[in-house]
């Protein structure tokens, strides 16, 4: 069987849902479909959580209405029995009418996970009326995680057992990306953009023949077309090149997706939902690595420099203290570099996490930071490619390995 993953961009409106059905009809015999929340619903639900926890009743109601209206607009253009969708909105409304229960991240997961529940309920209803009888599966009952809310860690043994028992390998099934559940039945999410990872989890557990991620781009390109004009389609990629590109921030694939697929040799296709007959990119066990440079831009980064208060070296004890603080604050490091008595890191400038991290670090270190920096990564670089990306930018830090260069830059004002 195959696994197809459709992201929010592919199902942002009724036309997207119809297009999904056409792709499944023409290419998806014996397929499990993993779907994300529609359009930008996850962002909208994040705003709803903030308003709910901050007890901003009006903002909360407004956000709820906006999300419901958006989904109703899509439903109104489709045919099918959407009663489950209305039930989900009723459940959400009832949850929002009660006092906030649990820590922020837990509340976040109970609410934000509903984006995927709604999208799959709508699509399953549409597929069924279109004669594609889709089995709707609740990913919360299949993917078991620990209690790390917003970044649930998968319990592979339980997950594999539950998936093998529940999924029918013939016909069409549909389930939610991004969500799972703890042992005591509290919903978790797997980290933003985690639906690709869900597709890989299902494929791994089911020994699927392939995974296809349907995108609004022709495949994996050598740069994000939103930033670069002359992009080139990478027709074949090794798992290693794919994992490196994703890890450095090529948002076309979630970095956690590759490992489960590589471990079982399952090919990953990245194809266009706008041109479903085009071959796109295939990622697999190939001998040849990339031959052309790839560019990855991460904006809205912050460069943090730490200097031990007691002038001690950046050695094992200080390093373990630093990494402990980052883990405690839940902040991922995108780049790091040290000298004898200073340690520099670049992280996403996440307003929910970075201020708390800085406070923790200030307990032991003198902390300086530079916000609004960009992190540019070039894989298979040469000097010409570096020169191409740094005009009008001040270079703050550079790190080179044999195949990859990373540049921390700031716009020259
Ligand atoms: N190397 C790359 N190749 C192709 N697309 C890329 C690359 N890096 C970033 N992207 C961006 O990824 C986007 C698709 O991802 P995303 O918007 O998250 O889709 P979805 O909602 O389907 O998961 C593309 O529109 C493109 O701007
Ligand atoms: N809806 C979740 C999960 C996801 O992967 O979405 P998408 O496939 O649209 O990037 C998010 O936005 O984080």
What fraction strand? Answer: 15-25%
So how many helices?
13
Architecture of the largest domain, CATH level 2?
3-Layer(aba) Sandwich
What do the pLDDT scores average to? 95
Low-confidence region ranges? none
List the bound ligands: adenosine-5'-diphosphate, aspartyl phosphate
Describe the structure.
The chain is an alpha/beta fold and 413 residues long. The protein folds into 2 domains: 207 residues, Carbamate kinase; 118 residues, 2-Layer Sandwich (VC0802-like). It contains 13 helices and 16 strands. The strands form 3 sheets. Strands 3-4-2-1-7-9-10-8 form an 8-stranded mixed beta sheet, sandwiched between helices. The protein has a 6-stranded antiparallel beta sheet with strand order 12-13-11-14-16-15. A two-stranded antiparallel ribbon has the order 5-6. α2 runs antiparallel to α3, α4 runs antiparallel to α6 and α7 packs across α8. The longest helix is centred in the N-terminal third of the chain and has 20 residues. The protein is globular and about 65 Å long. The N and C termini lie far apart (54 Å). The mean pLDDT is 95. The structure holds adenosine-5'-diphosphate and aspartyl phosphate. Adenosine-5'-diphosphate (ADP) binds next to loops.
């Amino acid at each position: 069987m195959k696994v197809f993953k459709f992201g929010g961009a592919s199902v942002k409106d009724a036309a997207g849902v119809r297009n999904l059905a056409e792709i499944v009809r023409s290419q998806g015999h014996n397929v499990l479909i993993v779907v994300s929340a529609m359009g930008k619903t996850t962002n909208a639900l994040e705003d709803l959580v903030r308003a709910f926890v901050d007890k901003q009743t009006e903002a909360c109601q407004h956000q709820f209405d906006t999300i419901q209206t958006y989904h109703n607009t899509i439903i109104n253009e489709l045919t099918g029995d959407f009663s489950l969708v209305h039930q989900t909105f009723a459940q959400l409304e009832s949850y929002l009418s009660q006092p906030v229960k649990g820590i922020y991240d837990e509340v976040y997961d109970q609410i934000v996970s509903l984006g995927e529940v709604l999208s799959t309920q709508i699509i399953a209803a549409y597929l069924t009326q279109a004669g594609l009888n889709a089995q709707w599966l609740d990913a919360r009952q299949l993917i078991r995680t620990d209690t790390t809310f917003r970044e649930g860690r998968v319990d592979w043994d339980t997950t594999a057992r539950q998936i093998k028992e529940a999924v029918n390998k013939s016909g069409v099934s549909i389930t939610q990306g991004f969500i799972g559940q703890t042992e005591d039945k509290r919903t978790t999410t797997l980290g933003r953009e985690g639906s690709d990872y869900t597709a890989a989890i299902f494929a791994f557990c089911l020994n699927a023949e392939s995974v296809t991620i349907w995108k609004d781009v022709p495949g994996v390109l050598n740069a994000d077309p939103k930033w670069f004009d002359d992009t080139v389609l990478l027709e074949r990629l090794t798992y290693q090149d794919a994992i490196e590109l994703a890890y450095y921030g090529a948002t076309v694939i979630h970095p956690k997706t590759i490992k489960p697929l590589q471990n079982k040799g399952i090919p990953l296709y990245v194809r266009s939902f706008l041109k479903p007959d085009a071959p796109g990119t295939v990622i697999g066990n190939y001998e040849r690595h990339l031959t052309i440079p790839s560019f990855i831009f991460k904006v809205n980064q912050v460069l943090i420099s730490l200097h031990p208060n007691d002038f001690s070296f950046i050695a094992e004890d200080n390093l373990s203290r630093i990494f402990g603080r980052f883990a405690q604050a839940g902040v991922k490091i995108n780049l790091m570099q040290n000298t004898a008595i200073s340690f520099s890191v670049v992280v996403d400038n996440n307003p929910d996490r970075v201020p708390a991290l800085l406070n923790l670090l200030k307990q032991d270190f003198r902390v300086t930071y530079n916000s609004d920096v960009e992190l540019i990564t070039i894989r298979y670089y040469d000097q010409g490619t570096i020169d191409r990306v740094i005009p009008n930018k001040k270079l703050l830090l550079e790190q080179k390995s044999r195949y990859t260069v990373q540049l921390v830059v700031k716009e020259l004002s």
